[in-house]
Design goal:
The chain is mostly helical. It is built from 4 helices and no strands. The chain has helices spanning 5-12, 16-23, 31-41, 45-59.
């Protein structure tokens, strides 16, 4: 969707600065928040949580691939 950063941050319920920090890799999205964002945006919780966890693993310098399955 074409949306300004301000509008997108507002839709997610976070500040523009926090969104910018996430985009720049200065902050990470927790798995819980990733699931919340997925619901807000109408996407799969599984895929957003996997992306959030993969970011954390990558930042740790680990050469591992994360996969998430519903319980």
């Amino acid at each position: 969707e074409e949306m300004s950063q301000v509008d997108f941050a507002e839709k997610l319920g976070i500040s523009k600065q926090h969104l910018c920090d996430i985009e720049k890799g200065r902050k990470f999205v927790s798995p819980e928040r990733a699931a919340k964002f997925a619901k807000i945006l109408g996407h799969s919780e599984q895929s957003f949580v996997a992306l959030a966890l993969q970011d954390i693993v990558n930042q740790g310098g680990l050469k591992l691939k994360v996969s998430v399955a519903a319980a």
